[in-house]
Amino acid sequence: RLWIMDADGANARELTHGDADTSPHFSPDGKTVAFVRGGNLYLLPLGGGEAQQLTKISTGVSDPLWSPDGKSIAFASDVYPECNADDACNQKIADRWSKGKLQAHMADSLLYRHWTEWRDGKVTHTLLVDVAAQKVRDVTPGKFDFPGFELGGPLQYAFSPDSSELAVASNHDPEPASSTNADLWLIDLKTPNAAPRNITAANRGYDDSPRYSPDGRTIAYRTQATPAYESALFRLAVYDRQSGTSRIVSGKFNDWIDDFRWMDPKTIVFTAPVEGNNPLYRLDVATGTFSKIYQHETIDAFEFAPLDNVFYIHRSVGQPPEIYGVSLNGSAASTQRKLSRVNDAVANEVDIRAAETMWVDGANGQKVQVYVVKPHGFDPAKKYPLILNVHGGPQSQFGDAFRADWQVYPGAGYVVACANPHGSTGRGQEYTAEISGDWGGAVFEDLMKVTDALEKLPYVDRNRMGAMGWSYGGYMMNWFEGHTDRFKAIAS
After folding, report:
1. How far is CA 183 from CA 38, 186, 193, 224, 410, in A?
2. Three-state SS for 431?
3. By the 8 A CB rule, do 251 and 268 touch?
4. H-helix or E-strand containing 18?
């Protein structure tokens, strides 16, 4: 269900009563909320009245985005390339596969399945619905994923401030699954069937997450310089719409830039993984200078509001996510204000364990960050079994962020330790890149030295240690199986 509250956190109330309403988005005039229900877009007038269905399509709706003029909404949908936005065509093909005599999945290229979801020849397209006419059109027809396949991350399309243009990220290489060459494509929305125009063709690496500046003169975006290397440093660049040229603006910032927003035409605010946290940074676009303006452990998402107010979702290992607000005043930030209390009941009922941080000397003489969560009812005079958890990626980080597994196992009496070995983000790109071509070496050395340090803790039972991990962490569990006998149990 969707909830709404006043900007100061007061008067929190249910906005909708559906069991699976998601992706709320205010209209530019603030009078209407668009949201997704049952795979379609709905509009709810905030002045009163029932939600009205805007789209009636079978291919689903995700990531709705209002145009600045409020006349249309862009969204992503998985369609058959021979159908585009023709829903009767899409439904006919889907029925043929689901109801036909042949019950099989067929594919002749990657990516044909993600986890348990089969694509069955579909591609993701950007569709546009006219709010008044309720007519849907495909602005990215053809065989390519447009936007490209993503495992999370910032939105891959954006409107220009005058609503006349849409920037979308897409990889048009012959084999996108083995390439990172996503580019930014501009689509003229005033011209029917306008061909997209590639503005980042000069970079053979990854370009994504377009954001137009408030004055419309430039487009900021994330970029990676190294082709076919998904773990290159994510930097910020801006494209000048008049000159048609791009330049890097994030200067010497040496960690991955995650989400970002224009604060004004001269300033960008962004988040980045840094030593287990996700602080807010301010970037001067002209000079490339940056400064940390706010840190509150893990900031999952943020949005600007008038008067330099920032609303964000924050969580830590010992605290479930809630909505907070802070005012940015020059180079400083006001004291954070907790605005929502959605998880207070759970937090008051359950013993949610916070994490302690330790640093261990690892491979190549570099420090390894380790989070340790002690068990429920912890008694320093007792010894407890240990679980060492290895993260996936491998280019990611364990952060000070609430997650279920860091609570379930301590609740069952285990000490849980989570390390950020070589290959992790948040320690500079050199630390991240050192895992390339060496998935077992430095990382394994790091984790063995972390284990050495953990088993010396007075409350850890060195005879009852286990290890677990998934994705790359699962790879490392298999490496453990062949290279050490220190663990009584290993889960891959």
Report:
1. 31, 10, 20, 11, 44
2. helix
3. no
4. none
Q: Which secondary structure element, helix H or strand E, spans residue 257, and what is its range?
A: none
> Which segment of 117-131, 142-156, 370-384, 441-455 scores lowest on mean pLDDT?
142-156
What type of residue is 14? E
Rounding to the nearest 10 degrees, give the CA dihedral for residues 76, 78, 79, 80: 140
Please tell me whether the peptide bond between 128 and the residue prior to it is cis, using omega within 30 degrees of 0: no
For the chain, give every domain's residue range: 3-345, 352-491
pTM: 0.93
Q: Is there a common fold for 3-345 and 352-491?
A: no
**pLDDT digit string (tens) for 27-83?**
999 999 999 999 999 999 999 999 999 999 999 999 999 999 999 999 999 999 999
Closest CA to 301 of 286, 289, 311, 290: 311
Which has the higher per-residue pLDDT, 192 or 220?
A: 220
Q: Among candidates 201, 181, 199, 84, which has minimal Cα distance to 142? A: 84
The hierarchical CATH code for the domain 352-491 is 3.40.50.1820
Residue 307: count of CB within 10 angstroms of its CB: 8
pLDDT recorded at residue 330: 61
Closest CA to 312 of 293, 336, 330, 289: 336
CA distance 246 to 237: 7
Residue 207 tokens, joined? 């370009």
Phi, psi at 482, each rounded to 5°: -95, -5
Degrees to nearest 5, angle at CA 260 with 291 and 73: 160
Pick from 139, 151, 162, 207: nearest CA to 68: 162
> Distance between CA 469 and CA 464 in Å, rounded?
17
Whole-angstrom distance, CA of residue 140 vs CA of residue 170: 10
At 332 the pLDDT is 62
Interatomic CA distance for residues 124 and 144, integer angstroms: 8
Q: Does domain 3-345 have CATH number 3.50.50.60?
A: no
Are the CB atoms for 224 and 205 separated by under 8 Å?
yes
Beta pairing partners, 233:
none
Per-residue pLDDT of 279-336, as tens digits, reads 999 999 999 999 998 776 789 899 988 877 899 999 999 999 999 998 887 656 677 8
393 φψ region: left (φ > 0), alpha (ψ -120 to 50), beta (else)? left
The amino acid that residue 140 corresponds to is: T
Q: Average pLDDT for residues 336-356, to the nearest whole number?
A: 93
Take residue 77 and report the two structure tokens written for it.
């949908």
